[in-house]
Specification:
- The protein is of the alpha+beta class and 283 residues long.
- The protein contains 5 helices and 17 strands.
- It has one domain (3-181, 252-277).
- α1 (3-13) packs across α3 (127-135).
- The N and C termini lie far apart (38 Å).
C-alpha cells in the first residue's frame, strides 16, 4: 500500500471511533537492567505489557514463552526464570559489546468489545482490517483475535562507546540478521552506533520472512513517550526514524491478517517490538 493510499484510507475510516475510547495496552517488551551492563555482573531481564514504556511488569510464564534467548557475538543461551515471578530471567554477560535478548510467545486468544477493538485498529494503523470490518457490516461485532508476541532488545555491555562499536561491528550478524520471528523488525543500523544526537535508525520489517509493505511502525523514547512518531513501510519493508535523544527507544508494530484455520476467530495478529539504548553511558 502506498503512503497516499494509506492516508486516504485513514480518512475514510476515521469516523468509526467517535469518542476517545482507549484501546487496550497491547505493547509487550523486554527491558534489561542495568543498561549499559558490565561484563561479569548480573543482568535482570524484565517483561512488560503496556503502552509507550508505561506498563506493568509480568513474571516469567513457561506456558507463554515459546522462545526466550540471549545472544552475543560468541554464542547464545536459553533464558528462563521462576514461574510467575519477575524478573523473568537473570544472566551474566561475559563479553563486552552488543548483546541481544529475544522473546517470542505461543499464540493467545482474546475477545474485545466492538468499540474498543475498532479503536485499537485505528490507533495502531490497522486500516485494512478496519475497512474490511466496515465493508462486512461487522463494526458492531466484538473482535475475536489470536495474537503472538515477538520482542528483540539490544543491550550494551561494558567498555567505552568505541570499544562497544568495534565489538559489535565485528559481528553484524548479531544485530543485522533476522531470527525467524513471524513478524520481525530487523535493524539496518548498528544500535550501538546511535548517539542520540540526530542519528538515523534504519530498519526493515519482515512478515513470514518477506518484506512487509504498508505497515505503520511507531517509535517512542522512554524519556518522552508522549512524542511517539509513525512511519509507513515502503515496498521493500524499509523505514527510518531520527534518534534525537539518549536513553531507551522502542520500535513497535502490529500486523493483522484474517484467521483462516479457526471459525471461532476472525483475526490472526502479530505484535513486534524492538528496543535499543541510544547514547553510551546514559541512563
Amino acid at each position: 500500500m502506498k503512503r497516499a493510499g494509506a492516508a486516504l484510507l485513514t480518512l475514510s475510516v476515521a469516523w468509526v471511533v467517535e469518542s476517545a475510547v482507549p484501546a487496550r495496552a497491547h505493547e509487550f517488551w523486554v527491558e534489561p537492567e542495568p543498561n549499559p551492563a558490565a561484563s561479569g555482573e548480573p543482568v535482570r531481564v524484565r517483561l512488560y505489557v503496556g503502552e509507550r514504556f508505561a506498563g506493568e511488569e509480568v513474571g516469567y510464564a513457561g506456558g507463554h514463552a515459546l522462545d526466550f534467548r540471549h545472544f552475543w557475538a560468541g554464542g547464545e543461551e536459553r533464558l528462563r526464570g521462576e514461574e510467575g515471578v519477575g524478573p523473568a530471567a537473570v544472566f551474566v554477560p561475559e563479553e563486552q559489546g552488543l548483546h541481544l535478548i529475544s522473546y517470542s510467545s505461543y499464540p493467545s486468544t482474546t475477545r474485545i468489545p466492538a468499540e474498543t477493538f475498532n479503536a485499537y485498529l485505528l490507533e495502531d494503523g490497522l486500516y485494512v482490517p478496519l475497512a474490511e470490518r466496515r465493508g462486512a457490516g461487522r463494526l458492531q461485532h466484538e473482535g475475536r483475535e489470536r495474537f503472538s508476541r515477538y520482542c528483540k532488545t539490544f543491550l550494551n555491555c561494558s567498555g567505552t562507546a568505541a570499544e562497544r562499536h568495534r565489538s559489535s561491528s565485528a559481528s553484524t550478524s548479531l544485530w543485522g540478521a533476522a531470527l525467524g520471528h513471524r513478524l520481525e523488525i530487523v535493524p539496518e543500523t548498528d544500535p550501538s552506533s546511535l548517539a542520540g544526537t540526530g542519528a538515523v535508525f534504519r530498519g526493515r520489517l519482515l512478515f513470514d520472512g518477506r518484506p512487509l509493505e504498508g505497515a505503520v511502525v511507531f517509535s517512542s523514547s522512554k524519556s518522552d513517550p508522549g512524542a511517539a512518531r509513525s512511519r509507513l513501510t515502503g515496498e521493500d519493508g524499509r523505514f527510518h526514524f531520527t534518534v534525537d535523544r539518549t536513553g531507551w527507544w522502542m520500535i513497535s508494530v502490529v500486523h493483522m491478517v484474517a484467521c483462516m484455520d479457526d471459525p471461532e476467530l476472525d483475526w490472526d495478529s502479530s505484535w513486534a517490538t524492538l528496543l535499543f539504548h541510544s547514547g553510551a553511558g546514559d541512563s
